[in-house]
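**User:** Everyone, produce a chain:

**Assistant:**
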Amino acid sequence: MAPMASMAHQAPSTHSVAFLARRAATALAAVLVLGAAAAPAAYADSASPKKLPDGLYGSKDPQYDGVWRQSLALLAQDTVGVRPAASAVKWLAGQQCADGSFTAFRAEPGKPCDAKTRRDTNPTAAAVQALAALGGHGDAVKKAVSWLKSVQNDDGGWSSMAGSPSDANSTSVVIGALAAAGEKPQSVTSKKGGKTPYDGLLTFQLGCAEKGDGHGAFTFQLKGAAPNADATAAAATGARGKGFVVEPAGKGADTPVKPLSCKDGDKKAGADDPAQAAEAGDGYLVAQLEKNGQHLLSAMPGAEKQPDVGNTADAVVALAAGAHGAAAAKPLKWLEKNSADWAKQSGPAAYAQLVLVAHATGTDPRSFGGTDLVAALNATGPEPAAAAEKDSKDADESKDGGGLGLVWVIGIGLAIGAGIGFLLSSRKKSRL
């Protein structure tokens, strides 16, 4: 699901890293389209703060993912009945530009956004979902949704950067924002062509003409690119009109997954409607999960493939959104056994992601593989105003988590400099 277009969605793979990676991929695509030499300066609108702002979750540099990780943290807290600290909510709301948009991080929120401010659909859509859930921010949500509508592409979808080609991840996270704000995504049409977000999203799905095992998968952006597990998980959730928060289907709910049917001679481009597209995407995810031991894989270019906790979590949410209880149960069990160290290292966005996984599957987030995810998340930021239950000792073990470490920021620069070959290898995750 999920902000930027995802550059290094590698281990540790968090929603924050996904946000950075998607922005990098979109920036590179824009470079190719516009014929520019490079555009790394667009990644940050503010310098790294010398002191972390009051109310911010995470202990690491928020320059590239502040709004994204804050939104996920507040949304996850709200989902489990925790009332966030007023300072945390105030910080997020104060990041909004006058036109309704958000960027990754504004070190000086009192300074008006200008033409140089790198407005981004991903943190904007994430903030909409959080503020809508918390309530009391109707005007801010309305302005943000209005801005998102204003930068919708002619194909019905969205890119991280306004004016760039649409991508599956950005389109999916905006669909989630529209739904959270009470909009009907199918009624939000492009000014030219009248295309809906679902029209745009389905263009990224691979059909029966795809060689190999990519039937039903979604690509991130470039048509004809390789199947992308990250994009598929986001799109399978978005195609159902759902955002980060997926309500559990109920005890015992188990609808069989229906992969894309590819009979002899049937070379259709993909599914015919959003619901069918979501099912086909789930079918691809299940096949990949079973192939890899109930988790998805990722790898930095030139490195060996390794388990991707973040993408596996996204896949579980996608399966839960389709009421595929049995299919979700196996990778969920893998997450319970293997996500603790990843979350501790990655910080608030990772803890929030796992809380949302637990919510979607009806699992107790306060006893997730032996970890109290709620207490751990709460400990990465200001003390909540009110909590449903008392935090546990796990809280003390999570304080070192934050946003992005230096190694991942460096990775962003490397991805930009490597050009299109790097983009296709790291972003499209060939055959994951």
